[in-house]
Design brief:
- The protein is an alpha+beta fold and 684 residues long.
- Among the domains are: 203 residues, no CATH class; 139 residues, Neutral Protease, domain 2 (Orthogonal Bundle), CATH 1.10.390; 89 residues, Immunoglobulin-like, CATH 2.60.40.
- It is 26% helix and 29% strand.
- It has 14 helices and 34 strands.
- Strands 2, 3, 5, 6, 7, 10, 16, 18 and 19 form a nine-stranded mixed beta sheet that branches. The chain has a five-stranded mixed beta sheet with strand order 1-8-9-4-13, with no helix packed on it.
- It is globular.
Length: 684
């Protein structure tokens, strides 16, 4: 089977199955956790920053019966680095969803069956149909990881000096898999999440090609996309761009009472002439433009229904890039959900759930309202949304995947919408290397979701402080009590992984985690906990200022840990290397012991005062400015310990008699042990 698949890859292109070897920036060459910045300059800010540029022009025609697109395209690649380049690396991610790929090998090793047993025509592929041409000269395609073909190397016919550019011409076919995962096809519906030769990132550490596996995602070069899609006339398309010509199909399938689509054909100035396109009878050509993006994805189905609106706002500040005062919001869901869901499953209960997630949750303005709510909230958190449109489509797969200007969602809940639209900020605009630093994206977007829902520890602590109850461990408000119990349970679960030895540093390269489950627990759950801890370290006002400054400084650039850390240190006027070192490079818990309380009563100027002292010692690996609280008749008094001291004495001077000394009484920290240190004080 693998031999036959490898043979199919050849087609008319010159393919070189290179000897298996180590790709650039992968083991044993690269460390598991980066010891230095990959994109942030030594200055720590944007002075001296550079990134490559990648502009695409693509024409793709969909052959529905075969489930295949046939495409041609050109890539203009600009070398803005200080280095001479002698090769280009490109990703062909669709080749992950087939037998013989590293993705399938990982599934096999971890006991999942998805793509490794698929047969033609069910597996996905992306194949060159002619040798790529660089500045007009044919070049060979090498697959160093053969039989995995998600990473390809192109040797340049001539060195590319700093400041030079090349034009690479591609011809290829691509087909999604019938098994959904980030991409899919079912009947006449298609999710083309990964479908074109995507140039790998070249940063200060060199090339960053990686085989696509379940753990880890993407890293891309910014540029502009000019994409013309040729599809049957009854297809409706949602894409990561602005439709500038042709009919995407929105008006034809618009829901009754919906606002007419605002296609924003004039959103971009200086749109170049359209390419010459052959449009067969019964087909249409729809052209999309997207700028300041590092990926282009699209979905199409004749079963879509359209609802749309305009999100109008006044830009809040000046940025390096244009901000539109009106953002078009497009929502595409399944009008044919009843039929489509019978194709998805034969189980009646699953079909009912499928219809709910495909139609009921979306229609009547529900999904539009969720999108507007999420957009408004994220703008308040970071800053103005910097694109002229956002499209949300109901995809075939469950859950969601984000792309610049496009969300492919399996349902229309507010939580998922906030999470995926949050990714447009933390992945699309603040373009981290998800393959190496998923915690900067998945962890942060997960925490954004918690913040929007009001479920974070910092917000819990603020509520408890306002309530000023004698026993904040058991709040009178039932909702607050449930939230505290839920957050404590999450901390306990993460502490268990540390005790069991399965926790791994969140900064590890994605494909080196012990399993996909460990990867998820690390970059989502522990990553989310890291931001809860950072929020607690910085405080509410400073944390908000850090996010807005981080966004304003680094939008449309590649970010790494040092970009975020430098902004946080400058805004907070603190040294935070200790914080990022422990959370990114180590696995551990926040564990402090509070011992030996002493109460002393003094008389000063005719008034009594009480002095409470206790010993605080760090027991766990992670440092934190631990809150310690003393209770009196009128409420709680808190102080913060020094996170850089392993052992210290904490002291309170009070005008009232104290009766209790607690570690972290309001539960603001990610410590699974703090609640065990609730000490009664002797009365005097």
């Amino acid at each position: 089977m693998l031999f036959r698949l490898a043979s199919l890859l050849l087609l008319s292109a010159r393919i070189v199955a290179a000897q298996p070897g180590v790709l650039p920036n992968q083991q044993p060459i690269a460390p598991r956790v980066p010891p230095r910045a990959a994109s942030t300059p030594p200055s720590g800010d944007t002075v001296g920053y550079w990134q490559q540029r990648a502009d695409y022009q693509i024409v793709a025609t969909l052959d529905e019966p075969r489930g295949v697109i046939t495409a041609t395209g050109s890539l203009r690649y600009v070398n803005r680095s200080p280095d001479v380049l002698r090769e280009l690396w490109v990703h062909q991610h669709l080749n992950a969803f087939r037998p013989g790929s590293k993705w399938s090998a990982t599934d096999e090793r971890e006991g999942r069956v998805r793509f490794q047993e698929l047969r033609d025509p069910d597996y996905a592929y992306e194949r060159f149909t002619a040798p790529p041409r660089v500045n007009g000269r044919e070049v060979a395609v090498e697959y160093p990881l053969s039989p995995d073909s998600t990473v390809a190397r192109l040797a340049l016919p001539a060195p590319m000096a700093p400041g030079d550019s090349v034009r690479v011409e591609f011809a290829w076919t691509a087909r999604p898999s019938t098994v959904p995962r980030r991409q899919a096809r079912r009947g006449r519906s298609f999710d083309f999440a990964q479908w074109y030769p995507k140039v790998a990132v070249y940063d200060r550490d060199g090339w960053k090609p990686n085989a696509l596996v379940p753990a880890g995602e993407f890293y891309g070069e910014f540029g502009a996309f000019d994409v013309t899609l040729v599809v049957p006339t009854d297809q409706t398309i949602g894409a990561a761009g602005v439709p500038v010509s042709g009919d995407p199909g929105y008006a034809r399938v618009m829901a009754p009472g919906s606002e007419r689509p605002r296609l924003a054909a004039q959103a971009y100035r200086d749109v170049p002439p359209a390419p010459a396109v052959r449009v067969p009878t019964g087909y249409k050509a729809v052209r999309f433009i997207a700028r300041n993006v590092h990926h282009f994805a699209w979905s199409t189905s004749p079963g879509y229904r359209y609802e749309g609106t305009s999100y109008v706002r006044a830009p809040s500040q000046l940025y390096r890039f244009p901000i539109w005062d009106t953002v078009s919001v497009h929502v595409l869901y399944r009008a044919d959900a009843a039929y489509d869901c019978t194709r998805a499953t034969g189980d009646a209960a699953e079909q009912k759930l499928c219809v709910d997630r495909s139609l009921t949750q979306w229609q009547g303005g529900k999904a539009i309202a969720q999108t507007r709510t999420a957009l408004r909230w994220l703008e308040a958190l970071y800053g103005d949304y910097p694109y002229p449109q956002i499209t949300v489509v109901k995809r075939i797969d469950a859950s969601g995947t984000e792309f610049p200007m496009l969300l492919m969602n399996g349902e229309a809940s507010l939580g998922l919408t906030v999470h995926e639209l949050g990714h447009v900020y933390t992945y699309g605009i603040l373009a981290n290397n998800e393959w190496q630093s998923g915690w900067m994206d998945e962890g942060l977007s997960s925490y954004q979701e918690m913040l929007q829902a009001g479920d974070s520890r910092v917000l819990l602590a603020a509520r408890l402080e306002m309530a000023n109850e004698r026993n904040p461990a058991q709040p009178a408000d039932a909702a607050v009590r449930r939230l505290r119990a839920r957050l404590d349970s999450m901390s306990d679960e993460q502490a268990a992984t540390v005790r069991e030895g399965t926790a791994e540093p969140i900064g590890s390269r994605a494909d080196l985690f012990g399993s996909f489950a460990v990867y998820n627990a690390s970059v989502y759950d522990r990553g989310q906990s890291m931001y809860q801890a950072l929020h607690d370290v910085l405080g509410e006002e400073t944390f908000q200022r850090v996010l807005r400054e981080y966004y304003a400084m680094w939008q449309f650039r590649h970010v790494d840990r040092w970009a975020m850390q430098t902004v946080a240190e400058r805004i907070s006027e603190q040294t935070l290397g200790w914080f990022f070192d422990q959370w990114v490079q180590q696995s551990g818990i926040i564990d402090y012991a509070l011992r030996a309380p002493v109460v002393r009563k003094e008389q000063v100027a005719g008034r009594f005062r009480w002095v409470v002292t206790a010993q605080l010692a760090r027991v766990g690996r992670y440092r934190h400015p631990m809150p310690v609280g003393v209770r009196t008749a009128t409420g709680w008094t808190l102080l913060r310990a020094d996170p850089l001291k392993d052992a210290q004495v904490v002291q309170f001077r009070l005008d009232e008699a104290p009766d209790a000394l607690w570690l972290d009484p309001y539960g603001s920290t990610e410590s699974p042990t703090a609640r065990f240190y609730r000490l009664a004080l002797p009365s005097r």
